[in-house]
Every structure is written in C-alpha cells, then in structure tokens.
Amino acid sequence: GNKNINAKLVLLGDVGAGKSSLVLRFVKGQFVEFQESTIGAAFFSQTVAVNDATVKFEIWDTAGQERYHSLAPMYYRGAAAAVIVYDITNPASFDRAKKWVQELQAQGNPNMVMALAGNKSDLLDGRKEAQAYAQENGLFFMETSAKTATNVNDVFYEIAKRLPRL
Ligand code: GTP
Ligand code: MG
C-alpha cells in the first residue's frame, strides 16, 4: 500500500552556495538573481510522490554565514536527510561542504540520507573530484542549477527513494 512519510530535511553549506535558491526552485519553481542571504533559517515544506510512498519534506534552509554556525545542530538534529550544497565555481565552498559532512558524520543521525549538491552547474562543467569524494563518503552526488532547474527535483526525489520505509 501507499505510505506517507514525513521527513525533516536540512540544507547546509557556505554563504552564497545556493541553498535558498534550490529550495525556492524546488518548492515554488522560481529563481531570483538577487536572492537575499538567509538570516538564521527558513522553513518550507514540499511533498514528493515516489512509487510506493508520499514523502512530505519539512525543509530547514539554514544560513551559511559563520555567525549562525552554532544554530546548525538545532536544524540537523533528528533530520532524516541533509543536502550539503556548494558552488562548483567556488573551491572554498567545496571545502566548507566537506566540513559539514564531517560534522554530520560526527554529530548527526547515523541513518541520515546525505546528498552533496554541486550547484550552479549552469556556470561550469562537472567535477570528478566531488563525484569521487561523494562515493567514498556514502553520499550521492548531483550537480544542480537552481537557475535552470537542472537536477533540483531530482535531488529530493533521490532522497525520498533512499529514506528508510517505516
Ligand atoms: P546564505 O543564505 O547566505 O547561506 O546563501 P545561500 O546558500 O542560500 O545562497 P542563495 O540561494 O542566496 O544564492 C546566492 C546567489 O547565487 C544568488 O545571487 C543566486 O541568484 C545565485 N545562485 C543560486 N543558485 C544558482 C545557480 O544554480 N546558478 C546561478 N548562476 N546562480 C545561482
Ligand atoms: Mg540562503
């Protein structure tokens, strides 16, 4: 039969990586060139139907600014899934993404489904390094563009497929 699953999902990543833009694309189908930097965190929800289940994502879009770092555990605690976002044109943001993965591996729910999103794929071609890194660390990897909508729904759909069936 069809199952209804509620899944808390957190987005983490550097300032300007495109967390809010990915959520805005996923939830509202929109993109804005001048998206404002998130203060604290923002909440959204969106439902995805997969073959055997309806997954309602309860999404926390966190702020990338360093001064909000200490708030992050409130958002990833108890989360079923995390999307760690970096900007493929910004190597420092990839380093920051790795730090988030380490923090989640140390402090997060061990069953958490983790996605690494290399965002702004409209600006540059893919990166083999990220693919290899994701594979080694048990994440799945996708390059996304909040601007063109490339792979945005797909990240959430792939998470929904991977969530444990209760
Ligand atoms: P914080 O809230 O400060 O942590 O940043 P964020 O990760 O939420 O980034 P945000 O979504 O605010 O995006 C930052 C900038 O990148 C904005 O000007 C967006 O328009 C732009 N942007 C986001 N995603 C994409 C994308 O896929 N392609 C392009 N070209 N620009 C993008
Ligand atoms: Mg934001």
Summarize the structure.
With 166 residues, this protein is of the alpha/beta class. Helix content is 31%, strand content 30%.
Structural summary, described in words:
With 166 residues, the chain is α/β, with parallel strands linked by helices. The protein has helices at residues 19-28, 72-76, 91-107, 128-136, 152-162, and strands at 3-13, 41-50, 53-62, 81-87, 113-119, 140-144. β4 (81-87), α3 (91-107) and β5 form a beta-alpha-beta unit. The chain is globular and about 40 Å long. Magnesium ion (MG) binds at residues 19-20, 37-38, 61. It is a lipid-anchor. This is RAS-related protein rabf2a. Its main location: membrane.
Helix content: 25-40%
Number of E strands: 6
Bound molecules: guanosine-5'-triphosphate, magnesium ion
Radius of gyration (Å) = 15 Å
Q: Which regions contain 5 or more consecutive residues with pLDDT less than 50? A: none
Largest sheet report: 6 strands, mixed
Please identify the structural class as seen in this structure: alpha/beta
For the residues shown, what is the average pLDDT? Answer: 94
Number of helical segments with 4 or more residues: 5
Write the layout of secondary structure elements.
Elements: E1 3-13, H1 19-28, E2 41-50, E3 53-62, H2 72-76, E4 81-87, H3 91-107, E5 113-119, H4 128-136, E6 140-144, H5 152-162
Parallel strand pairs: 1-3, 1-4, 4-5, 5-6
Antiparallel strand pairs: 2-3
Bound molecules: guanosine-5'-triphosphate and magnesium ion.
Guanosine-5'-triphosphate binds next to helix 1.
